[in-house]
Amino acid sequence: MDSLLKPLNPKKASFGRHETFALRYSWLTKGFQAFEKNKSIFSSDEATIELGVGKNMVNAIKYWLRASSMLLDSDEGLVVSELGERIFSEGGWDSYLEDETTLWLIHWQLATNAELATAWYWFFNCYHKAEFTSEDAAESLAGFVRNNLTGKHSERTVKNEVSMILRMYCPSNNNSKSIEESLDSPLTSLRLVAAVEDLHIYRSYGNLQSSLPIELIGYAANEIFNQRQIEYLPIADLMYGQKNGIALGSVFRLTESALLAKLENLVKAYPNIFQINETAGVNQLYRQENTTESLTFLSHYYQPTR
How many other C-beta atoms are found inside a 10 Å radius of the C-beta of residue 6? Predict the structure, then answer.
């Protein structure tokens, strides 16, 4: 079955496409609903009026919709994804981002889109330092690009991506700015990155992530199974990923024990789909039924009628 995941492709990478504008609360809703009404909105002279932003911000809104897979590139041009339609259409599951689960979902989509959000993919799947400076992270990302990607990528643009990630995920410790920044960058509420300003370092630790629902774990795991076309996954792979692969546990900044607990609860909720078995001393998640669409898990969360 199809998957929205876009794992690392050395020939396909993107940096700086957001034009230095971090994702803001209203942008996905505004941009998606405007596109549904007018498929040429992003190239239209009316875009700045319709969306209420400047031209560069119009481009940024389009970028974030594509990077989060709410809009997809196709042979016919840009089209809405089924995920985007379910979430952001008028009357959708959570078109105004009132549920934190939707923020977790957007985060997952960005962190698993190595083609359009390459730095986000790298930071959450491949960069495992719990404490770091922005300079250290920028150097590590530049080294990753040199060693794993082909083509020319401006080192300055690449390194600047780390600053954008920190802006989008790190809540400000300055009370005079915290409300405004929280409104502008919704992903800060996930608290996946924290600043220790007096030490000039950042922290991004594994945690229990109690607000992360089982249905989203099911959606994410099912997407990995679909993308890799396999019947089972070692739980260690789900935690840390294969080389440069998608790492569910790392993306959500779960501890090993927290990931295992989430997966055990997933098996309890969906025993006909998932099982955990030990093979040759290795704990593995098995998918016994591969016809369930990933969106089914999300529908069970947003429309709990089962």
Answer: 20
